[in-house]
Structure prediction request, 576 residues.
Amino acid sequence: MTDDQLTVHSVTGVDLTLSIAGPGTRSYAFVVDWHIRLLLACAWLLAAYYLFNMPLKLKTAGALVSVLPAAIIYFLYHPILEVAMQGRTPGKRMAGVRILSRDGGPPSVTALLIRNIFRLIDSLPATYMIGLVTCFMTANRVRIGDMAAGTLLVLDNTAAEKSLARIEALAAGSQLPLDALELVDQVLQRWESLETDSRARIARALLGRLEASAEPPALAALSDSDLRAKLQSHLSSREPAASHV
Amino acid sequence: MSEGSQIRQWIIARAGTWRAVVQNTALLRSRRHATVQEALTAVESYRALARDLATARRVAPNSRTTAGLESLYGQLHGVINRRPRAGIAAFRSLLSVDVPRAVRELRARILSMALLMGISALAGWWLIETFPTLIGLFASDDMIEHVEQGHLWTEGIINIMPSSILSVSILANNIVVSVLAFCAGIFLGLGTLYLIAMNGLMLGAAFALVHQHGLARALFEFIIAHGPVELSVICIAGATGVALGESIIRPTLDSRRDSFQACAHRVAPLLLLCAVLLVGCGFIEGFVSPDPTFPIASRITIGFGYWLIMWALLTGRLFVERPLLRRAVGA
Prediction:
């Protein structure tokens, strides 16, 4: 097991494997959240000033309606949303990560509060330096707040979960072995997003392995749409292929 | 039948179950509560999924299907291991069990912190009495100027800033100081000791300064309404920080990390209560302390009354948990 994975024992005897999010994913989620809370706080201040004519001066009673809510949005964004969204924030959702406790379950409210309290230390001396250094140095890529709370930031593999929904139809319609089937399906799903040259090269390499009889010159002569159609035919073919990946 | 064909047949046979588990898990994750039947179904699905995952790991270790099953298994694990939401009962338990237990555990450390703060305050007092020019280290120029003119820096503050704003800024500052005293315990407790000692030193120095200018009584009148609870809470927060540091120096569990985590969880309810108490202090300091119309008797009553409430909360006397057995028998 690597540093990027954590095994959690389960009562079923089949261990649970958690994919730990690294400092990069963590930073990405934080930067997205930071922008969101900054924009929300600024939006509130602007709305208070321009729409409701509230002063933005700190030493006036109007600050309770203008500055205080903006400060609450900015400083309590993480604890409030993490508790409300069960260990997630919009930034974490975008980065595809989630906070879990070390036993693989959702974190308790106390754990989430402890995790956020320690931001005071993790953010020292500036730009979350202590937190970032700790992430690089610790076994499960955690910052001090996570260590105190007993939490982890894990990758939420929703893409793999979606593939479960397709696999039944694919397995029923094709004779390819599972790994080849998934590979062809992935290439076809990403077809539009791949560059024409790249997808043609990948498709020819795949077809060369799937069809032992296919000659390289014949594959080279196939157009982009032909290659796609040929790959598509492997997903719905009932006939066994001559050779497999 | 080839192995590839067997795997496909197995997937086709099991895919319907997986689809149902995906739907049920999504439903359970989106809801706070589940019926007994739903919970039993989830447990049964969890067992079935464990068997399927074990098979998938063996026959197709690097496939997306296995990755999907891993993800689904993890989600269902989370749903099954979800802690119950006790609501008000959890809150009562926090006040009647968790907080008093933490206070009992930290009793000696709280007294040590009070002692450290007291000794630091005396040291601050002695320092300024002996070397008056050193006051610049502890107080701002504005504050010193006010006192030299015969006024406390707090006089007329409510004419400059509304009490509500004053309260919010004071309570925010106090909460940050308390939380910092707790978090600074990560530096083996030294950060906390430094914070408490500095607070005591500044308090003693401020009292020495006002004493030199005949304003000691005025400062006492200012702080007596909020000071007892505020200073007690800072000592308690300090004790939680020291406990945190001690859990790293002298771990009581298998590893320092586990010990640190367990200690943070044990003392966190106490810190939460401290934050709530500081909110009260902030309002007293914003509305009562700077208001000259409040007589000294009222201030003392508020100060010690609030301190008694704090003591009752910390010792669990304000919310006594009735034993479950008695409740069950009574019912």
In short: Chain B has two domains: 3-80, 88-314. Residues 3-80 of chain B form one domain. Chain B has 13 helices and no strands.
